């Protein structure tokens, strides 16, 4: 038999606590500092730079690409300032989830630091050389590429990670069944976002494939890997765009509408099942996520079925009514115990 219809149980709401108020402007200061550096160095170095600035190196030798000095600086500074402005708006927006805000600030710090590094390294190499054609980046310039990662990490430490305060999960009573009854439960999850993304990425993959097939041999080495990457990503998005979740005597199963198994948890591997409020930031974001000790299929923020496995790992999937499959898993688990 299938499980009887019943009202969805209320899942206790989790409360997200933002870091101390003083930490947000401190982290945003790190986002804006590279923009200020670009403005200051631009006012000092632009009068000394030639008409073009070395901007590309293929190896350890002299530069082989050049950009007009003023537009190079102006565009780099404008992009960095725009990214910093977006990070600031998102950080202070009330309706933005705290986990989204912190990663937007961290991403903003990375991009602005990278922009400042690219222009500063190019301009400094040009100023050191007799002319742009003789500009050498040097090993220090290559090593400096790690600076944006360190800068983003510093912004994360400055901002702090939001804390999730959640109530004790409601106890799940095993689903009442007669000794002769058998029960199964299933539902289908559909993500329009994944469908749209799959279509968009698939179109890009098709364009890359066309370019690889019709381009010259010099560019084919670039377009072929990109085509494979885009087509592969589009296929994975398509696999996850529609997933059937089922619970029965075999355990918990997630199966793609294309027939591919997404997750299989045998019943004898289920240590406990419960319903709780899921914050995507705690599980690595949206989609099929993996973190040490936990895996999840997350399509939204909200109620989710959480399964504790016997080896200590956890699996979660967002559902409208996770209490019903959790109760069924608890009953099936008790029957085989």
TrEMBL record:
Keywords: Membrane, Transmembrane, Transmembrane helix. The chain crosses the membrane at residues 25-46, 72-93, 100-123, 135-157, 193-210, 222-243. This is DUF1648 domain-containing protein. It comes from Beutenbergia cavernae (strain ATCC BAA-8 / DSM 12333 / CCUG 43141 / JCM 11478 / NBRC 16432 / NCIMB 13614 / HKI 0122). The lineage of its organism: Bacteria, Bacillati, Actinomycetota, Actinomycetes, Micrococcales.
